[in-house]
Amino acid sequence: xxxxxAGPRQQAKAGNSIFGHPAIxxxxxxxxxxxxxxxxxxxxxxxxxxxxxxxDRLSFSMSSYPPNAPISARPDWRPKGARPGSDFDMLKSQxxxxxxxxxxxxxxxxxxxxxxxxxxxxVFSTALNEWLAREWLDRDPRLRASIVIPTESPxxxxxxxxxxxxxxxxxxxxxxxxxxxxxxxxxxxxxYRAAEKYGLPIGVHAGGTYxxxxxxxxxxxxFLEDYVNLSGAFESQLLSLISEGVFAKFPxxxxxxxxxxxxxxxxxxxxxxxxxxxxxxxxxxxxxxxAEIIRDHIRVTIQPVDAPPDPAQLDMVIEQIGSDRMLMFxxxxxxxQFEGTDALPAPLAGDLARKVLHDNAMETYTRLRExx
Amino acid sequence: xxxxxxxxxxxxxxxRQSKLSVVxxxxxxxxxxxxxLKPYMPQQWWEHLTTFxxxxxxxxxxxxxxxxxxxxxxxxxxxxxxxxxxxxxLDFMRAQHLDPNNVERGxxxxxxxxxxxxxxxxxxxxxxxxxxxxxxxxxxxxxERLRGSIQVSADDVKFSVAEIERCAADPTYxxxxxxxxxxxPLGRERYWxxxxxxxxxxxxxxxxxxxxxGSPAGAxxxxxxxxxxxxxxxVQAMQAVLVSLVxxxxxxxxxxxxxxxxEAGFAxxxxxxxxxxxxxxxxxxxxxxLKRLPSEYIREHFWxxxxxxEEPERPEDLDRIIDWIGEDRIMFxxxxxxxDFDDPNYVFKxxxxxxxxxxxxxxxxxxxxxxxxx
Lengths: 372, 374
Hints:
heterodimer; A: alpha/beta; TIM Barrel; 13 helices; globular; B: alpha/beta
């Protein structure tokens, strides 16, 4: 399955990844080992709050990623007795060195934005970003990061974005696929205004705050259902972003869907464009077919591939997506999406491979071009 | 519905296909007024209807949550000259739809008043029962081409089972009709007695997009703003229901259960099946009730009606989707008299084999619904 025309060592010398081109991994997950590790990054008041309330001993694992479930870490990427993704040396050798990655974008999945208290969500976001800068970004020049924000408090989120904006290693703003409200709603627009101003795409990562059932028909029984249904959440977010007119208002803004899968895109685009043709007078600010808007403004990380059994079918899906600019390389480290270094499916070859591995991310993440 | 299908190039196809007879799996009958239901309702519940009306888990009591782009969700030309809402006049339905479109059999799917989603379960049961009787008396007895659905309310399992048993003896009812969106995902065990009753009655279960679950229409993403979003959100709901039915092991327990998904389109099915198969391998330990690849259950147990048919940018891509799903599993539907009606003469943009055409336009439905006497 892997497109690799030369051995890892040779490629690394040329600045290339094991796939023969420079690679930018658009979705890796360093993990907070435990809440106590964040203590130094809170002010005195909050340190006392965390200690006296025992909050430093709580786990804020998101319900969408049970840490011991197979999806949460590949067996060979799971540190003994520690949280997957929490060991810097492992991540460095397994996620960066093993693929010959030039840059990797850290999306920290910690329940900060799921906290119900807006104040606590904000200080946890600040602490997380500070921890990320000091304990990860400072330790390896290949690492880049997404800004964690208290999503449901756009004013506080904008403050956090402004606090990080000067540090060009933060290349994106992180939101989740399922929150209180659809992401197109206008209360979020201050976040998008700040994103456009500072040249930061919005990364929307799989998972959610579980403020409501993860389907429109109540709570399923199984994690498998939640994980599969996430593609539906991304579909809903696309409809919201387009219908509310986010891209008419912020024409330079890009959204990166991370860990969303992408095989669902063609059928979604067909239906969205057809429905828009029928009822577009409801949203007169949407002047173009949704499929065109999606190709211009949406980028998608490649893992998980949700691959059909027949590689020819994946070829077909990639053709149907109809753009070589949308897909961006990711390993989703340490999540278990593939074996060995099989992160790049065979149909992503040749010129397309170069775009997926590198060029599309360079185009999307303008801050990668500015260096540090 | 789209205008760009009305191209001259399709005209010759229309001439050639005009003799094709059609089974329409989605026709929406309406009552001229609620009074039509009165003869079928016990006095107590008729008074409830006229005093309190419908009560469902949404913002409005007398209309849908998202105002539509056409009055009564309907084609502007579907208002009967005799008065009453679209779909309420049998003669007009004959003249406008059944006759000119060569509808050999039409399956009625009553949606009005959200009978299957009422919060007051006893009222919902009375309403479902009245609608079931009204369908037969007002429509099917007067028009031999029409068949009915046994409307039930999934969250009232006891009633649903009793109603399926009550209607089972009448072959005019060809399917059980359940709203797809309910309080919980339909695969959960509390709903299984309904599946058991459907299997015993030898009827497929049809789910027409909709239902009022109380959960926002976005797929876990909150309350959406527009009808254009809601129209497609119905697909995400159907996906979640399909996933629930498969993952909960419903088809291990009911190996002969058949599910018809109505008005959800179908082009999304291959990608969803791949996703489910891929992730099942990762989550196997969580769902020991699944003995086979999820896509194997899907291929055995699901049928899909065509409308609103997806329109790929390259029309031939739809043929590939049908190849994957299987031409035995796709059944034509129009959604008459609604605005997004698919016309049998224009619905497919590519030429398909005579066998495939016959299967999709009539044979599959005749086999599934046992309409061979036709």
